[in-house]
Structure prediction request, 121 residues.
Amino acid sequence: QVQLVESGGGLVQAGGSLRLSCAASGRTLSIYTMGWFRQAPGKEREFVAGISSTGGSTSYADSIKGRFTISRDNAKNTVYLQMNSLKPEDTAVYYCNYASPIGWRPTSDYWGQGTQVTVSS
Prediction:
């Protein structure tokens, strides 16, 4: 079951920017805390950024703090990740999921296909 669809990834040079989108179908996101996660080759999936149901509170991994911004538009049933000052180490497949506000663990077993972000040097 694919409930969330990620898009917006691509190839960008170091220092560039990308904006990722996470669109939901079959479920209203307005009551859910959401998160972005990423997985690089040979590494475990890790938390990147989270946002409360209303968008009033956010949380970021230390590795991207100050460079990425998570936001949401509940009217469009979409969560965004604005990525600036990208670094080669940001290269990964990015996923969104429902997330627990305590520990920022994903709370759904169903993942989308993700969107590939590749940052060249």
In short: The radius of gyration is 13 Å. The CA atoms of residues 21 and 80 lie 5 Å apart. The chain is about 0% helix and 45% strand. The mean pLDDT is 95.
